[in-house]
TrEMBL record:
Pfam families documented for this protein: MmgE_PrpD_C (PF19305), MmgE_PrpD_N (PF03972)
Domain called MmgE/PrpD N-terminal: residue spans: 21-262
Span list, region Disordered: 319-342
Domain MmgE/PrpD C-terminal residues, every copy: 285-470
One example GO MF annotation: lyase activity
Sequence similarity: Belongs to the PrpD family.
Species the sequence originates in: Streptomyces yunnanensis
Protein name, as recorded: 2-methylcitrate dehydratase
Domain of life, source organism: Bacteria
Amino acid sequence: MLEHHVRVHPSADRLPREDQLAWKLAQAATGTEEPAADSAAMAVNRVIDNAAVAVAALLRRPVAVARAQALAHPTTARGASVLGTGARVSPEWAAWANGTAVRELDFHDTYLAADYSHPGDNIPPLLAVAQHTGRTGADLLRGIVAAYEIHVALVKGICLHAHRIDHVAHLGAATACGLGTLLRLPTETVYQAVQQTVHTTTATRQSRKGEISSWKAYAPAFAGKAAIEAVDRAMRGEHAPSPIYEGEDGFLARLLDGPDAHYTVALPEPGEPRRAILDTYTKEHSAEYQAQAVIDLARRLREKTGPLHRVRSVVLHTSHHTHHVIGSGAGDPQKYDPASSRETLDHSAPYIFAVALEDGTWHHERSYAPDRARRPETVELWRRITTVEDPEWTRRYHEPNPARRAFGGRAVVTLADGTVVEDELAVADAHPAGARPFRRPDYAAKFRTLTEGILAPDAGTRFLDAAERLADLDAEGLDALFPAVDTAAVAAHDAHLPKGLF
């Protein structure tokens, strides 16, 4: 890997574009060759994963709204598919609808380092553009692997959340790079698209704070849509604010560490295999990633605590990130409010631990149902659970070696008679370093479980077969990556939506 040292430069420096981070990202993307077999196989896993969670979310309100907006933008060109409809629309709108469906349940892949990310959010815009432009499955795989490479590099090197900037700022840049790789665009074009995308997709983390709204699902889809539009403009010769990262009024100087900002971003050398996708991991449970190990730990503790009415208190000793983002350290009263939205509850470690401790399982719908959240004994237990930051868990969260990195914590359960029960779990069971790392059969099983009752069994089989053959699919074959659902039922559901502008 090549380490690129990034700092703020005054305009008088006239920083050459070859020395700018946006250029180096574009160069790494356009230099991406055919992916190695293990990287390509993992990309297939993530295509399956995305389809599973998107189908499961089809009838949720934010997804239906995004779909209705997309259907108002048909195209006379080739277009791209909108999941659940059988219709094709302009690719940026297909990315908007499908990206919202993928993100809605907070149930697909993740990568955590200096910042947070859901790199699977790159896939809907890449697939939309691949369909629209008649690219092959091999082209799509190359674009996905490149997007993951750029996304992981940015997440490792530049922390956004410390300044309360939402993590989709890195997603937009990665998607623009993946699109450039997919389309085999010149480095100059991708460079301009990256800068436009970063400039237009930077937002605050209020979308993930307090009373969390449905925008949390829309935000990544918006970044994907914006990246497609930026690539389109760049292909037509339009330029961007430059240098977007290093400029004295740019991203680093005004939104992150300020004029004295220094960062290091490591990118692959020319010809070096793109393997960052292998460092990412998916979710077994529909919840914020830092709650994955919390759920597994709670399930394990059930046998040790006895009747839960005897629990006096539970303290989760965990990392700074977990304590301040989904724990009591966030200072959000909504994290203890039974009337909170699903989006808020899936960012509440105390709620998640309470329900997992009571039920011994986790379900993407039942575990968040309003009547489940308002159950009196659950509320009583929930409000006896707190988190604290433990410096050792923070250190392990930032461990340079991914195989030793930890996203879990230690639970200290104090019973009414003073007995203390303790246990800890470093990573979720499904993590690559966990007790049951996800493999291809696990992704297929997740797909089958989440689509049961929505897809006919033969439709699920056809999708899985197509995904397995992704590298060999021609342009028409990409259509098979959209599982065949009952479009009439989806349309009937959507007919009850309030009308908008379109």
